[in-house]
Amino acid sequence: MSRRRMVWAVPALAVLHFVLHVGFSLGAVAPDLLTVALLVAAREVRMGTAAGLGLLFGLLEDAYSVLSFGANAFALTVVGAAGARTRDLFVGDSLLFALSYMFFGTWARQALHWMVVGADVRAPFVQTVLLGAPLEAAYAAVVGAVVLWAFGSSWETVA
Amino acid sequence: MAGYTSENDERSGGAQGYLTALFVLVSIVVLSLPDGAQQRTAAALRATLLRPFVLVQEGIARARVHAATTEALQARLDSLTAIVANQRTLALENEQLRAAVGLGARMRTAYQPASVLRSGTTGSESSFLLDVGAEQGIHVNAPVITQHGLLGVVREVHPRSATGIDWSHPDFRASAMTLDGSVTGFVEARQRVFGDLERLLLDGVPFHQRLEPGTLIVTSGLGGVFPRGVPIGVVDSEAETRAGWLRSYWLRPAVDPTAATHALVALGPEGQPGAVAAAFGVDTLAAGADSVRAGSAARGARRGPRRGAPGGGPGGEERR
Predict the structure, then answer these.
(1) Pairing relationship of beta strands B216-219 and B199-206 according to DSSP bridges
(2) For position B12, what pLDDT does the model report?
(3) What's the CA gap between B32 and A71, in Å, rounded?
(4) Is there a contact between B26 and A55 if contact means CB atoms under 8 Å apart?
(5) How confident is the model at residue A154 (pLDDT cuts 50, 70, 90)?
(6) Which pLDDT score, from 0 to 100, does residue A153 have?
(7) Domain residue ranges of chain A, discontinuous segments joined by +
(8) What's the Cα-to-Cα distance from B98 to each of B94, B101, B229, B279, B287, rounded to whole Å?
(9) Helix H segments across A63-116?
(10) In this structure, are residues B231 and B80 in contact, taking their beta carbons and an 8 Å threshold?
(11) CA angle A10, B123, B27 (to 5 degrees)
């Protein structure tokens, strides 16, 4: 995805995320487009910028969190930084890489959120991190791949 | 994924590392802020950047309420009219009986109607927003009820909005009883097993008291947070028995939190907040003390000006 397209895609995905989750109260029915937007941006911007974007997105997400304020901010900051760091570690333009990148990025965000949220508030580990999070991550990965394709990405190798 | 251009060159690498560490540190600081500061930050974000999305949800919630068919609303109005008509004589009878035994007027709870808005974001499960706040008299710990029963309780109050938790929140607790008040206990939320429905647990029921499935459980009013008699749920099955000591029961909740779009927030006793004088009749002890004081004053007056009781007073009138 080109830098110019990314500048449009990331805010559009963030706005769509809040329209679906807050405006229409769709909850888990709607994909986690905020994390998808962050992961898309993280492949294009510097690590510090990605971490800052993650912090901003996390604070917006936390605005509706009564007892775990800051958990999303921490999780998305770390995911943003790690996403930017993957450029130095993994080089790939394939569909399989895009799906894996989105899947593990979203899963890591859920796992980090579970780790830092209060013990009294969070659901059991197996239920959240091992069963719920992979499903959400798979959903986000598919949507993320479609978003990348829609914004002009082309897969070099179709896995 | 399309090709990318790495900007992490050696010169900027160190600065980017420091910047990243700074943002991670800020996120940890945000996580560790006191509750008050976190609430203020969240409220500021909701009132500014996220306001358009909240407005969209408010509009959708209103549209849903308006979309309710006229026939259904008319049927509900007819039912309410019938209930009110039947209870009118009951209320009069109750007033007369209370007066006969020297009790004051029954305290009535004032309610504020509100739209319930739910955010589907991560971490906001079991919480909801209300479109009313301190300006409408909402206060922290105000009960939120729907036509079916108890929905939850207000946790944060802002000038024109409030945030609450519903009964599925791990922090939710309510003192409960059966409708006739013969069995009391404590209701709390139990986290669901994957794929299962949220449910409530009635705990602390004495071992010798059994509850049949289908028994209605309502708030007992103990603790002063929830008004007495608001439905919480019905008994589903026995959950646990601590031999010779206590029983606990699973409850089927009266209210589905995800379906609630309109609710009433209890403001407390009508009139001045916290004014409970109306609930008490004539205080006979205080009245007795007043009469004792009056008697002492009269005796002092009879003894004359030496005791520092200038003038005549009632006693003087009697002597004459």
Answers:
(1) unpaired
(2) 67
(3) 10
(4) yes
(5) low
(6) 65
(7) 3-150
(8) 6, 5, 19, 11, 19
(9) 71-89, 95-116
(10) no
(11) 65
Q: What is the residue extent of each domain of chain B?
A: 45-106, 111-295
How far is B198 from B219, CA to CA, in rounded Å?
19
B7 three-state secondary structure: coil
CB-facing half-sphere around the CA of B70: CA atoms within 13 A = 0
Superfamily of chain region B111-295 = Rod shape-determining protein MreC, domain 2 (2.40.10.350)
Q: Taking a contact as any Cβ pair under 8 Å apart, which residues of chain A between 114 and 133 contact chain B? A: 116-117, 120-121, 123-124, 126-127, 131-132
- Supply the DSSP symbol for B136: G
Cα B208 to its chain centre, rounded Å, is 31
Q: Given pLDDT bands bounded at 50, 70 and 90, which one contains residue B274?
A: very low
Verify whether the Cβ–Cβ distance A22 to B2 is below 8 Å.
no
For residue B151, what pLDDT is reported? 93
Q: What is the ipTM of this complex?
A: 0.88
- What value does the CA radius of gyration of chain A take, rounded to a whole number of Å? 15
pTM of the model: 0.69
pLDDT single digits (tens) A49-106: 999 999 999 999 998 887 788 999 999 999 999 999 988 887 767 888 889 999 999 9
Identity of residue B129: L
Q: How far is CA B79 from its chain centroid?
A: 26
Give the nearest partner residue to B31 out of A25, A64, A71, using CB atoms. Answer: A71
